[in-house]
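Sharing a chain and its predicted structure for anyone who wants a worked example. Both blocks are below, sequence first, tokens second.
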Amino acid sequence: MGKTTVSESMFIGWMECNKKYTEARELTYAEFVSKFVYVKKDRCWKPRKMRNTIGRLIWVPPSINEVFYLRRMLTHVRGPTSYIDISTVKNVIYSTFRKACLALGILADDTKYVEAIKEAKDWGSRHYLRKLFVTVMLSNSVNRPEELWNKTWEWLADGILYRERNIGGIPEFNDPIEAIVSAIYPNLIQKHTDESYLQRRAILASRIETINEINQYMLSLISGEEKEYLSCDSVGETKSASNDNYNTITSKFLNSLFTSSLSNHRIKLKIGAPIMLLRNLDQAKGLCNKSKSIITRLASHVIGAKMITGNKDDQDIYIPRMSMSPSQSTWPFKLIRKQFPIMLSYAMTINKSKGQSLRFIGLYLPTPIFSHGQLYVAISRVQSKSGLRILIHDKDNKPSYTTTNVVYKEMFQNV
């Protein structure tokens, strides 16, 4: 661009001439050569002495995009002194020549393409209708793509939404928890001890309260005697002077606290139920946080289980009670809970599902997801689209097909 031949081209020279001659500012680019002539040795335009020349513009195909729209503007704009002048319509500067053409109203409408899609919509499947739309768009002859889309999208999308809802959604239900359980755990009563069956599926939700509700509902469906385990909760000692203030906290209050990284105060279990470890017990043998097992024995102070994930060489495991504290919490004190480091794993929080790959995933969203990236994490746990079911409803249990995807834009500022 720094070359003299570029900076002093005939086109640039035309705009410079418009600055110098009042008469030039009354002419379009095609009309300009009838009254001005380009002098090569001086690299500039000068008034023509003999006025018998007819100007013309070289044809430009629509596929060249902005050059095509520039050419269209040159047949209407008179006396511009810069590219900005060419893209200005009624004192408004447009970012592209195409937008300027649209504002000037010199582009033909796309009615014929709307009518073409309208005529073809009753001929066959919507798959071929969408192919027709793509063919039209690739022809580079559509002047207003957004307008064409707005006028035809319902015909093009017909059948897609219905199919997607049937593939990924659960359209009708009376009890949402019963619906999501039936979709992900069909024939649970007959297969509730089948390792392969339990290992390949899970229900995900964003809140621990929801997870507890689903797990307890599913436990009630399987046969067997239920055994209940209660934790012993206390406040950990600290060197802070305010520690004395926590002595008044009651056990009842401590028992009511729960978080996804900590066992519940009250755990109900049955033989054959799947559980997930919440702490590392023996990493060498695969007894790690998030590993899954099936309960085989229930005693007062120890639980027997059989591993269904990780290293299965030594499958029979015994789980004792242990003292635990959450690594992070919003509480101003340190909660110490002595309990079995497990939770039922029919359903789990989205955060607990990280790193897993399952054949069947049920995403249950009675309330919107509230953390950055959680929706992506949940959906990416499933191995295929056919194994995903999503149930969304409002506070009145009416089904919905939309939810909020939380993304903190601040995270991308330094990327």
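Comments welcome. The chain has a mean pLDDT of 83.
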